[in-house]
Amino acid sequence: MTFWTASEGDAVVGCAALRELAPDEAELKSMRTVPSARGRGVGTALLRQVLDEARARGYRRVSLETGTHEFFTPAHQLYAAHGFLPCGPFGPYAEDPHSRFFTLDLGDASDAGNTSNASSP
């Protein structure tokens, strides 16, 4: 698993991780931003960094699991804006009323280019 952070000064304001599911498929894991960073492009920068890395590794698909509660609506909108589509459970997941699943076919993704300020150790 590869982990990225976004920071402002000495403060971490966001994080994301990418986990390989198969040689051609990965999962976006644990993408988060602190409340003060929301709506300021931090999530977009992290997502672009992760997707750029997924493409560089040759993954054809990136999927993710997120929550269904209203709190997650901005995340759903971010994923949709970058071409993710709703899908069924994948990998180790099963149907769950508290989970929502999305997937992105990188061959059809229009999210090219990286304007990220995110970094990976």
From TrEMBL:
GO MF, one annotated term: acyltransferase activity, transferring groups other than amino-acyl groups
SUPFAM superfamilies reported for this sequence: Acyl-CoA N-acyltransferases (Nat) (SSF55729)
Ubl conjugation found in the keyword field: no
N-acetyltransferase domain ranges (all copies): 1-107
Key words, A-Z: Acyltransferase, Transferase
InterPro entries per UniProt: Acyl_CoA_acyltransferase, Bact_Acetyltransf, GNAT_dom
Gene3D superfamilies assigned: 3.40.630.30
Acyltransferase in keyword set: yes
Signal peptide positions on this chain: none
Official protein name in the record: GNAT family N-acetyltransferase
Organism: Candidatus Phosphoribacter hodrii
